[in-house]
Specification:
The chain is an all-beta fold. It has helices at about 300, 340-345; strands at about 5, 25-35, 40-50, 55-65, 70-75, 85, 90-95, 95-100, 100-110, 115-120, 135-145, 145-155, 160-165, 175-180, 185-190, 195-205, 215-220, 225-230, 240-245, 250, 255-265, 270-275, 285, 310-315, 320-325, 330-335. It contains two helices and 26 strands.
Amino acid sequence: MIKKYEGNPVVKPSDVKPSIDGYKVLGAFNPGAIAFGDEILLLMRTAEGCEPKEGSVRVPVYKFEDGKSWPDIMEFDPSDPDVELKDTRGVVYKGQDYLTTMSHIRIARSKDGLNFTIDEHPFICPTDETERYGIEDARVSKVDGRYYLNYSIVSNDSWCTALAVTDDFVNLERLGIIFHPENKDVAIFPEKVGGKYVALHRPNNSGFGKASIWYAESPDLLHWGQHKCLLRPRDMKWESMKIGGGAPPIKTDKGWLIIYHGKGDNSIYSLFTLLLDIDDPSKIIKQAKTPLLTPTEPYETDGFFGNVVFSNGVVERDGKVFIYYGAADETSCVAVTDIDYLLESLE
């Protein structure tokens, strides 16, 4: 069986210290996850807005100068004719867009996978104009003994996927953009297949179809090719809008196990399982007909963006599988199961 932890959410916005005075944490969600030493680490997307101030519109920004970056606050007079309040998510000032929230990646640490302490400071935050509007939805793959983190970056040029590597989750080496705009939901396999690195990705579809899951190969984790569409949304209520990959694949004796998300009717997000061929992951063996996880609890149905369960972090430990997921674009939660149940869900 699969069981949502009775202590969910395991991390709430109120558990996270703001980056600077004047910021307010509005979301700690969509965590990447990895076993590191005797701990489980969550790399949470941490969304911050500004504490309100009467008579002023305030937005979080990052400033860049001489190779350095720092978080700051911009204030606008709402009566200024150059100020345009787009909606609750943004402000336009003299033609320049500003968001009401800014995201970075913050680490939460746990010995048991259920009770977490949160680092006081960001782990990955914007450093240049390619990340002007924030860093979102990290995924972590241990490949060749090192920890590779891919994440979405947002700028005036839209959103795309960047890659970094760490050995200790203290020091970080940025490797640059690996999937150009507009592409996200990248999940890198934890080992080479057929002598090549493999990943799933999700290019935007502004053509005649819906956003789907794609397959790609690389000789070095930086240059990706052999792209092919692996899986398209089915004609069902759970996938009526789009689908996208989730956490890095799990290797089993039956094949590569994937947990992916679907966005369906009424913008409801759910999770499904998928099994790919162990020697050729561009081939699908099985696909679940019913969701593995749907939003049913109040912390999943109500929040910053309700009716969302979204996973990009899975950890195997002591015969259990911990599926970490963002709930309602606000909190981080976990559901516990095992490999046998996940494989049975494909039947």
